[in-house]
Amino acid sequence: MNSLIDKYNIPGPRYTSYPTVPYWDENSFTPELWKQSVIRTFKESNAEEGISIYIHLPFCEALCTFCACHKRITKQHSVEIPYLESVLKEWQLYLKLFNEKPKLKELHLGGGTPTFFSPKNLKTLLEGIFETVEIAEHQEFSFEGHPNNTTKEHLQTLYDLGFRRVSFGVQDYDPKVQKAINRIQSFEKVREVTEWAKEIGYRGISHDLVFGLPHQTWEAMESTIRKTMELKPDRLAFYSYAHVPWVKGVGQRGFDENDLPSGEEKRRLYEDGKKLLEELGYIEVGMDHFSLEHDDLYQSLIQKKLHRNFMGYTSSKTQLMVGLGMSAISDSWYAFAQNIKTVEEYQKMVEEGEIPVVKGHILNDEDLTVRRHILNLMCQLETTFDINNSFPELENAFEMLKEMENDELVEINGHHIQITEKGRAFTRNVAMVFDLRMMRNKPETRIFSMTI
Ligand SMILES: C[S@@+](CC[C@H](N)C(=O)[O-])C[C@H]1O[C@@H](n2cnc3c(N)ncnc32)[C@H](O)[C@@H]1O
Ligand code: SF4
């Protein structure tokens, strides 16, 4: 396995979208085209499958120095109400585009830290949205909770509003790692919030773990996984640490590149972590995620309903996802759009009555074909190409896959590709072969070392 890791371990997109954000064609995008796309998708899909809403709640009280999310650090809770008022106003701007009441199927509160906001303010926000929608049967409402500031009242209030899923950011329990990432968080605290959530009746409790953090050793990782198992969350995200200090506003500091595990050590953390999680009864779902057999995520995998969007893996699909809040990304299947990235500019645009999207991408027919195949690979680990509805580089892409077939990472049958169990860790490499936007813009991109 090690030589495979050396060969294929290259930075690759996580494919929460295709095209990925760096390859969006911003020249083709205008806010007007975005609105038209929302109107079209809403008409096509609202009655049947409903829509999803993602709300970005950006504030955090302290900076975790490993974090790559769009956030704003402040201890001033006076920011809560004005921000939530802007979110509700932004939602009103979307409502004007709809010809009927939206059916809300999925709702996710992400951040930043949703639990920075008081339960009372979150309730006002959500009631403001709920009075404008019809809530779908079997709704899926979830939120991200920071264990250090999630209270029993947060959990109860959100449960009463229909939330059944919560993901807690754990990362790693090792004191040296926690110090380096400026996130001191005890196991007792995580135990307390997890037990509250169970008592209240949440049934999709998830913990986020990250491998590849500064000073992380296998001993630290193993101990974190074993502690996590004492609490038996229904599912786990097992993220690869994304080191992107050059991205504006990210604020990754407090440790040195030399403190990070090497590429091989990092891959080993993943491989050994995965092995241990599987021994402990978790099943890998798609990429980065593990779940117990009873959990919806695994059930949707076996029923071939697993979907992936900017929220990560989800157990149902809606064609329209409206992202509200600063930096939020929306998806109408035929187009993507991202909101402006600072709180002040976001609030100003909304006040002026503008949907605050500032960049995006309108998908052409070829993008839609590739998007479908990459989604199939990321969710079902297989896809079949129709040569009558493909693109000029298809044969070349299959040529590139031969190397992976020789390494038993994929099985190819005509134009059908199946990623093998051994190949699962390399799913992104397989998807990259079909990433036409990336290949055409950066033909020198490495898919694996052989191509250099
Ligand atoms: C928005 S945060 C979670 C909510 C809350 N703010 C908290 O920290 O508990 C979402 C998750 O993203 C993951 N994350 C953040 N920065 C990351 C990075 N640089 N690489 C990999 N995962 C990261 C962490 O696992 C984190 O729990
Ligand atoms: S990990 Fe969570 S709490 Fe920490 S800075 Fe990022 S979003 Fe904020």
From TrEMBL:
Reactions catalysed: coproporphyrinogen III + 2 S-adenosyl-L-methionine = protoporphyrinogen IX + 2 5'-deoxyadenosine + 2 L-methionine + 2 CO2
Give the cofactor note text.
Answer: Binds 1 [4Fe-4S] cluster. The cluster is coordinated with 3 cysteines and an exchangeable S-adenosyl-L-methionine.
Q: Which InterPro entries match?
A: Coprogen_oxidase_HemN, Coproporphyrinogen-III_oxidase, Elp3/MiaA/NifB-like_rSAM, rSAM, rSAM_horseshoe, rSAM_sf
Q: Which residues bind S-adenosyl-L-methionine 1?
A: 54, 111, 144, 329
Provide the protein's localization. Answer: Cytoplasm
Q: Would the keyword Signal turn up in this protein's UniProt record? A: no
The record's listing under SUPFAM superfamilies reads: Radical SAM enzymes
Q: Which GO terms describe its molecular function?
A: 4 iron, 4 sulfur cluster binding; coproporphyrinogen dehydrogenase activity; coproporphyrinogen oxidase activity; metal ion binding
Gene Ontology, cellular component aspect: cytoplasm
Q: In which pathway does it act?
A: Porphyrin-containing compound metabolism; protoporphyrin-IX biosynthesis; protoporphyrinogen-IX from coproporphyrinogen-III (AdoMet route): step 1/1
Highest taxon, organism lineage:
Bacteria
UniProt main location, coarse: cytoplasm
CDD domains per the UniProt record, alphabetical: Radical_SAM
Keywords attached to this entry? 4Fe-4S, Cytoplasm, Iron, Iron-sulfur, Metal-binding, Oxidoreductase, Porphyrin biosynthesis, S-adenosyl-L-methionine
Which SMART domains does the UniProt record give?
Elp3
Main EC class of this protein? oxidoreductase
Q: Which positions does UniProt annotate for [4Fe-4S] cluster binding? A: 60, 64, 67
Q: What is its EC number?
A: 1.3.98.3
**Which residues of the sequence carry a binding annotation for S-adenosyl-L-methionine 2?**
66-68, 112-113, 171, 183, 208, 242
Its BP terms in the Gene Ontology are: protoporphyrinogen IX biosynthetic process
Q: Which cofactor does it need?
A: [4Fe-4S] cluster
- Subunit composition and interactions: Monomer.
Its function, per the record, reads: Involved in the heme biosynthesis. Catalyzes the anaerobic oxidative decarboxylation of propionate groups of rings A and B of coproporphyrinogen III to yield the vinyl groups in protoporphyrinogen IX.
List the NCBIfam families hit by this protein, alphabetically: hemN
* Stated name of the protein: Coproporphyrinogen-III oxidase
| Organism per entry | Chryseobacterium gambrini
